[in-house]
Amino acid sequence: MSTTVGPPAPPVSSRLPRSVDDVTGRSARAILADRQTRSAQIVRLLILLLSIVVLVRGWAVTEIDLGKLANAQNAGPILKALVTPDVVGRDVTQTELRVPFQVGLASAQPVSARTPTGQSLTVTPGAAQAGDSVELAGAGFEPEGEAQLRLDFGTGRTVLLSRIPTDTQGKFDVEIAWPGANTAPAGDYFLQLQSTAPSGPLRASDTLQNALGRIGETILLALMGTVFGVLLSVPFSFLGARNLMGGSKVGMGIYAVVRTFFTITRSIEVLILGVIMVVIVGIGSFAGVLAIVVHSIGSLGKLYSEAIESIEAGPVEAITATGANRIQTVLFGVIPQVIPEFLAVTIFWWDHNVRMSTVLGLVGGGGIGYLLIQYIQLLQYNQSATVLWMIVAVVTAMDYASAAIRSRLV
Amino acid sequence: MLVIEHLVKDYPGKVRGIDDLSLTVKDGEFVVLIGLSGSGKSTLLRCINRLIEPTSGRIVLDGIDITAANTTELRKIRRNIGMIFQQFNLVRRSSVLTNVLTGRLGYVSPWQSMLRHFGDEDYGRALINLDRVGLRERAHQRSDRLSGGQQQRVGIARALMQEPKIMLADEPVASLDPATSHSVLKYLQQINREGMTVICSLHFLSLARAYGTRVIALKGGRLMFDGLPSEIDQRRFKEIYGEDAVEVEIQ
Question: Which residues of B touch A (CB under 8 A)?
Fold first, then answer.
């Protein structure tokens, strides 16, 4: 009889059988599936079916039509405007060019003129009879502007001959048909070109300056709304904290009233509050501030109350045991514990309020939204894009800054 | 002298916390409360300063009925009863000095404390008590910078600010290592020798024997044993802690 020692048995986990039950040969999965009740399976199936029905209904009710997205004709200009916001520009000045022109001759050398600031005009030929074609070429004018071509009789009298649009580079090259003798009898005249031209160095465009002013107003609007929201919600937040108010019926009554008050003010959206405040105090930033204040009381109050409820109970108990009354206990046991959380909540909420303030202008509540809605209604997409990018930049910066400050506090 | 008569504390929906307990603690005693977790030690201590409201019974300290006191009277009574806790219960973000000064709140008018103002005498007391627990140098540090033993010493200093007649200690060393436990209990012993009554709950019988002048054992909210530490033999130990219990020594 040999007593050889075989290799050690593999660990249990690596030789799990496919069938667990020796008699029926059923798998572990099948055995565990028995543990599920039939009704739980049916309920799960019903929830799945119901979800599908709701989603299908939602698709129909909201008129989702992906075809519209593919054929959207207005999308092009808007998308183009987004990448070409109106951020820089030059001052625009009036310019005037004059060239001599003879009427009644069949042909002549081209005539041209140039201003010291770089605008030029060439008229070919330098004379014309009725019905002739005259070519006008110019450069250095305001892009996508307009030039007026006038005939100067030399007596102070002028007649408008043509309005000439400039291209995106500020140039034009057009031909006009010379009018008949009724307009201009034969003789010596001047052709006068009046237009606008950019001058001076590049500078922030008017749109950018407007947007900067309005975004500053928006941040301050949010700040004022937050400050008054904090002042009004902090006192209430202590009355809305269960750990401070519990213990007596009166306390829990006050707690319930305060929390209900918070819930009500929180449940009305800022835009709706904005509409109401505009009715009460008129269009402007003050209406926006009031809307933010009312909205903030409920939300800040709730966040502050929850911060108070999450403090350690031990120090409060210890201070109560020294014979301190309730106010002293709050001053020395509660407030030191909640200060960092309160600051974090406040900064977060200011950041949130800046975002809210950017749309308040849509209903007349002041801030940058007011500018945005004006540009959109005038179809000034490049200007709208400037405002949009401004909002993106500021909201992103606020978001980052508030997160950075909060991570240091808590 | 602390007299407890027929004290009952019922927790709604739970078992009775304290079940008809009567005992008398004479001035200057160092009473150690022992018993299993849930035997009613913490409840008893908190009924004495009414951090927990007793259901019925009377607690009388030097002739004043604590259980009958209204809010204003209770505030004055609590000044006479210091308390320290297992978790020290300091305000972590406040300085050691501020934590110590809060022990004086029972004496300061609420309007003064609105401005966080304490009188010169209170600062004097704070200095003396910080010296007593050897933490004068740490006065301006945030209290959560201190070690556990140091934090408990701040807790003792805070309680001493009350100039109490009696000191309650709820598992004061249960969160500390053995060496630190002895150092903290030595402070309590020192205070006791200067004349203050101490009632202290402890988990280790060895500590009870080393520091207590009297041991009271609770089981299920009832008095199980009341006598000298040396009287607790193996049989009594099993009565208090159950048949399966084995005594663990702490040096």
Answer: 49, 51, 71, 75-79, 81-83, 85, 87-94, 98, 102-108, 110, 113-114, 116, 155, 158-159, 161-162
